[in-house]
Write a structure and sequence with these properties.
Blueprint (H helix, E strand, L loop, with lengths): L1 H7 L15 H8 L1 H34 L18 H28 L11 H32 L5 H32 L8 H4 L3
Helix pairs in contact: 3-4, 3-5, 4-5, 5-6
């Protein structure tokens, strides 16, 4: 909010000092030193945990790409279920899961290697966290979809209820992840984009 206040006050006020010799910027920095440290610790812990999950997903979906369901034809080397529609779902979902988890790893790694300056907490770090969480959720959802597609390939012709039941249970972890992290995702968007609308220079100028 300090950046938004700077836009609506007289420029001369920004250089004024109080009785202790602090400018508004100096005083703001001094009073938020502990908050800056706490924010850095929280951001690093969150990024580390999420990056661990993203790395596990990337490992699983990468291995799944070379161990396709049904195996390969011994003569041609092509997958046995190549012409099945669920095989296309499996391949596309697995690829998206791999790309999304890799993107998530890069985002969280960039958070861990950030300088953690004051300006980084304004836009850079929240944006990286938001994109990282979005990519992580996408990778989880696509991994689960690829998992469900495998059962549709194997059991769809004989026991159709088996893949439907498994797909239903597979949606549970995705739903839990979305519910548990929804508020964090929304708060990140609010802090990055919506907070600037609390102060509209055209309507709330002080000079």
């Amino acid at each position: 909010w300090f950046k938004e206040v700077e836009k609506i006050v007289r420029p001369s006020y920004l250089k004024m000092k109080n009785l202790e010799g602090y400018t508004p910027r100096d005083l703001f920095t001094k009073e938020h030193e502990q908050l800056l440290k706490d924010g850095e610790k929280w951001m690093k812990d969150t990024a580390t945990s999420c990056m661990l999950v993203a790395t596990l997903i990337a490992t699983v979906v990468f291995a799944a790409a070379f161990t396709v369901p049904g195996g390969n034809n011994n003569e041609t080397g092509t997958p046995m279920f190549l012409k099945e529609k669920w095989f296309v779902v499996f391949v596309v979902s697995d690829a998206i899961a791999l790309f999304s988890s890799t993107t998530s790893i890069v985002m969280f790694l960039s958070i861990l290697t950030s300088r953690y300056a004051e300006n980084d907490f304004l836009v850079s770090l929240p944006k990286k966290l938001m994109f990282g969480l979005t990519a992580l959720f996408t990778s989880i959802a696509r991994m689960v979809l690829a998992f469900a597609a495998t059962f549709f390939l194997v059991y769809n012709n004989k026991m159709a209820w088996v893949p439907i039941l498994i797909a239903s249970f597979a949606c549970v972890p995705v739903t839990f992840f979305a519910v548990l992290h929804y508020q964090l995702w929304v708060d990140t968007i609010r802090s990055t984009y919506w907070s600037r609308f609390l102060f509209q220079p055209s309507k709330h100028r002080l000079y």
